[in-house]
């Protein structure tokens, strides 16, 4: 059938999406000269762009059907024969459905399994809470041996993939919905395991990762026009945590706002709070801006959900302003 | 080369007597799950599997214990093959030991994959077999599963994947001893008709007596090569095989034979072997 309305589309012709093409392209490029690379998905090759890997390396692509636990365990088994295995599926299914397979088959064994969890946070909008991942950082950072990284755009995701090929042990990549706007330009440094300071300000600090980085940058820009100068840190790597640089950032301000597309319990804010306790940082106020820890999400398209929960630039601005009026 | 059936039988009882010794050190363990599989691992490790002195040899055949609680029976074999010092066995499960009730591949040379949570290792084995195939390795992967474990949904996810990807360097073995922890598998959560289920999932099924050294040797020997089909050996066994008071009861799934009881149990095994 020919589509007549310009807003119509079907799954074979999804609109161009920057980050959702990264995994397929970058992993295929790496695999051109590295025969250890293999990619798995669970009936989502169009959604996560691994179809490009299938086209370029069909012998090393495994579509396991809708069986995510088997996928993670298979990838671990293959990794035990000298391969580096990438599994891609919705973040909600990785962190919750496959938690035990990740812990016992990939992390306990310390095998190079890369878990690409896409459509994280509430980015699935009106698909509802079954498809939301607002607990995944909390789950993953509790698992020994498991790296946790949350790239915010195509450039940082590409860098994360390239830089971690030979990292020992498993890594969880927390990824957005695949159309995340650019934060980094290709010449900007991004280093796995090191936080990125994207903006310097004397009055306070916003720590964010994932989709909240661009919103934090927009908010800081607008607040700057009103005379409030905030630093913005992209705390993309949760584990291994860049403790030294995080401590210096925390010690340079009186207020730190943590903005995350995750429950306020267990995620980035909790990581920062743990660091403050462990490093005896007492004179900094921590304000958590995230998804409510004791709620399940309302139904709406993502744009309206972010607005509703204050997880956009306007929401950040009003929350930050209210904290400075106290 | 002639098969030394007597030696394989003797090694199966070596597994049993060592299991009795090790569990007495730990003060608790899984006797009956080892005893039902003793002939299977004896034939695999002392006859069928291609191994070398190097437990990390890339082309070695792999053995995965999805029923990880039988590990206490495999440790004596691995020590006997020289993969770690025999005196490791003497501190089995004590603080600082590498050897626990469930096996840890990072601590124990010769353990091809960690296990303990039922239902995982067949998936690991499918991935491993595919990884070996990608490397053009001739190695095969043997995965032993419990029968109660057949209740786990992930087993069937792995079963369909092995069939879909035509993994013919994979051999599943089910230790069909008819009992899980709480009682008879058919009373708790029926798994029959088991052979038909595996056939329906596209596996080539071989039903054998899992205590017959001859049948085990012949079945492994005659497994088809390059068949594009995963192989399933449904080994009919007796839980606790070898000790009259343990056979066919759920009560000894976990327990302790101490002092005189351990000596009597070993004596019973030796007597049977002498017959």
The overall pLDDT of chain B, averaged over residues, is 97
Q: What's the β-strand tally of chain B?
A: 7
Order of helices and strands of chain B: HHHEHHEHEEEHHEHEH
Question: What integer is the average pLDDT of chain A?
Answer: 95
CATH superfamily of the largest domain in chain A: Thiamin diphosphate (ThDP)-binding fold, Pyr/PP domains
From the coordinates shown, what is the CATH architecture of the largest domain in chain A?
3-Layer(aba) Sandwich
CATH topology of the largest domain in chain A: Rossmann fold
Give the CATH class of the largest domain in chain A.
Answer: Alpha Beta
- CATH homology group of chain B: Thiamin diphosphate (ThDP)-binding fold, Pyr/PP domains
Number of domains of chain B: 1
> Which strand order does the major sheet of chain B show?
1-2-3-7-6
Q: Largest chain interface and its two residue counts?
A: A-B, 29 and 31 residues
Structural class of chain A: alpha/beta
Termini separation of chain B (Å)? 26 Å
The geometry of chain B reads as globular
By secondary-structure content and strand pairing, the structural class of chain B works out as alpha/beta
DSSP helical segment count of chain B: 10
Provide structural commentary.
The complex is a heterodimer of chains A (326) and B (275). In chain A, the strands form 2 sheets. In chain A, strands 2-1-3-4-6-5-10 form a 7-stranded mixed β-sheet, sandwiched between helices. Chain A has a 5-stranded mixed β-sheet with strand order 7-9-8-11-12, sandwiched between helices. Chain A has helices at residues 22-32, 51-56, 68-79, 91-97, 99-107, 136-140, 154-163, 212-225, 243-251, 268-278, 302-308, 313-325, and strands at residues 37-41, 61-63, 84-90, 113-118, 147-149, 171-174, 196-199, 204-208, 230-234, 237-239, 255-263, 285-291. The radius of gyration of chain A is 19 Å and the shape is globular. The mean pLDDT of chain A is 95. Chain A has 2 domains: 16-174, 3-Layer(aba) Sandwich (Rossmann fold), CATH 3.40.50; 196-325, Rossmann fold (3-Layer(aba) Sandwich). Chain A is an alpha/beta fold and 326 residues long. In chain A, helix 2 (51-56) links the parallel strand 1 and strand 2 (61-63). Chain B is of the alpha/beta class. Chain B has one domain (5-274): Rossmann fold. Helix content of chain B is 40%, strand content 12%. Chain B is built from 10 helices and 7 strands. Chain B has a 5-stranded parallel β-sheet with strand order 1-2-3-7-6, with helices on both faces. In chain B, helix 9 links the parallel strand 6 (204-209) and strand 7 (231-236). Chain B is globular, with a radius of gyration of 18 Å. The chains are: A alpha/beta (326), B alpha/beta (275). Chain A binds chain B through residues 35, 38, 59-60, 62, 64-65, 67, 69-70, 73-83, 85, 100-101, 104-105, 108-110, and chain B through 58, 104-106, 112-114, 116-117, 120-121, 123-132, 134-135, 137, 154, 157-158, 160-161, 164-165.
């Amino acid at each position: 059938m020919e589509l007549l309305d310009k807003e119509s589309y079907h799954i074979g012709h999804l609109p161009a999406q920057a980050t959702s093409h990264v995994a397929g392209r970058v992993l295929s490029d790496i695999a051109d000269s590295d025969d250890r690379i293999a990619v798995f998905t669970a009936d989502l090759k169009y959604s996560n762009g691994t179809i490009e890997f299938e086209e370029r390396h069909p012998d090393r692509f495994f579509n396991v059907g809708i069986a995510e636990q088997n996928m993670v365990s298979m990838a671990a088994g293959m990794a035990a024969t000298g391969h580096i295995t990438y599994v891609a599926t919705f973040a909600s299914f990785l962190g919750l459905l496959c938690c035990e397979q990740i812990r016992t088959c990939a992390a306990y064994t310390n095998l190079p399994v890369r878990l690409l969890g896409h459509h994280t946070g509430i980015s699935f909008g009106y698909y509802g809470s079954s498809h939301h991942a607002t607990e995944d950082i909390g789950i993953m950072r509790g698992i020994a041996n498991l790296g946790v990284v949350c790239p915010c755009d195509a450039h940082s995701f590409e860098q994360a993939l390239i830089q971690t090929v030979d990292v020992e042990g498993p890594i969880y990549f927390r990824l957005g919905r695949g159309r995340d706007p650019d934060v980094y330009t290709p010449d900007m440094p991004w280093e796995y395991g090191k936080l990125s300071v994207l903006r310097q300000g004397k009055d306070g600090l916003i720590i964010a990762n994932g989709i909240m980085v661009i919103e934090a940058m927009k908010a800081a820009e607008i607040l700057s026009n009103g005379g409030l100068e905030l630093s913005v840190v992209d705390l993309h790597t949760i584990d291994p945590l860049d403790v030294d640089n995080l401590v210096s950032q925390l010690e340079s301000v009186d207020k730190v706002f943590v903005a995350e597309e995750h429950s306020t319990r267990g995620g980035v804010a909790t990581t920062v709070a743990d660091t403050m306790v462990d490093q005896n940082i007492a004179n900094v106020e921590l304000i958590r801006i995230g998804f409510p820890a004791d709620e399940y999400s309302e139904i709406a398209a993502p744009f309206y959900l972010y607005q509703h929960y204050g997880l956009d630039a306007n929401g950040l601005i009003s929350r930050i302003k209210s904290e400075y009026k106290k | 080369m002639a098969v030394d059936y007597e030696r394989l039988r003797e090694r199966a009882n070596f597994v049993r007597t060592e299991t009795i010794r090790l569990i007495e050190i730990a003060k608790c363990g899984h006797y009956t799950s080892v005893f039902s599989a003793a002939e299977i691992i004896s034939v695999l490790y002392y006859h069928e599997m291609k191994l070398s002195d190097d437990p990390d040899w890339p082309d070695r055949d792999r053995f995965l214990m999805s029923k990880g609680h039988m590990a206490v029976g495999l440790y004596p074999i691995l020590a006997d093959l020289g993969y770690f010092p025999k005196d490791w066995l003497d501190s089995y499960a004590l603080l600082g030991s590498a050897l626990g009730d469930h096996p840890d591949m990072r601590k124990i040379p010769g353990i091809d994959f960690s296990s303990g949570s039922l239902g995982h290792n067949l998936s690991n084995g499918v991935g491993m077999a595919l990884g070996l195939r990608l490397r053009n390795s001739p190695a095969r992967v043997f995965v032993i599963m419990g029968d109660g474990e057949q209740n786990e949904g992930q087993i069937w996810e792995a079963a369909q994947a092995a069939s879909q990807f035509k993994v013919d360097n994979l051999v599943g073995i089910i230790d069909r001893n008819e009992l899980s922890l709480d009682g008879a598998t058919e009373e708790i959560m029926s798994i029959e008709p088991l052979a038909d289920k595996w056939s329906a999932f596209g596996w080539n099924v071989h039903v054998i007596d899992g205590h017959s050294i001859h049948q085990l040797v012949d079945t492994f020997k005659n497994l088809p090569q390059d068949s594009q089909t995963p192989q399933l050996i449904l080994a009919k066994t007796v839980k606790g095989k070898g000790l009259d008071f343990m056979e066919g009861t759920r009560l000894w799934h976990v327990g302790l034979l101490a002092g005189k009881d351990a000596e009597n149990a070993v004596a019973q095994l030796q007597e049977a072997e002498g017959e």
